[in-house]
Design brief:
Length: 69
């Protein structure tokens, strides 16, 4: 079973996104992607949602792939 983590940031700079990614990857989470919320009046994002996953404690090492029911 996968666990999911969403980190929300209203400070959307390269330095802040790098800090978030490096912090969570260092403790075992895998980066899945980043979603941005845009402002109507600006080309810069208003917020970023950084998405991570990790294998839960009950997940087999192969991720359950190929397991027969």
């Amino acid at each position: 079973m996968l666990e999911y983590k969403v980190v929300e940031s209203s400070l959307v700079t390269d330095e802040e996104l790098e800090r978030i990614i490096n912090t969570w990857v260092a403790i075992g989470w895998h980066l899945e992607g980043i979603q941005f919320a845009m402002r109507e009046a600006s080309k810069r994002p208003a917020m970023a949602f950084v998405l991570f996953t990790r294998r839960g404690p009950d997940t087999p090492p192969d991720g359950g792939e190929g397991a027969t029911p």
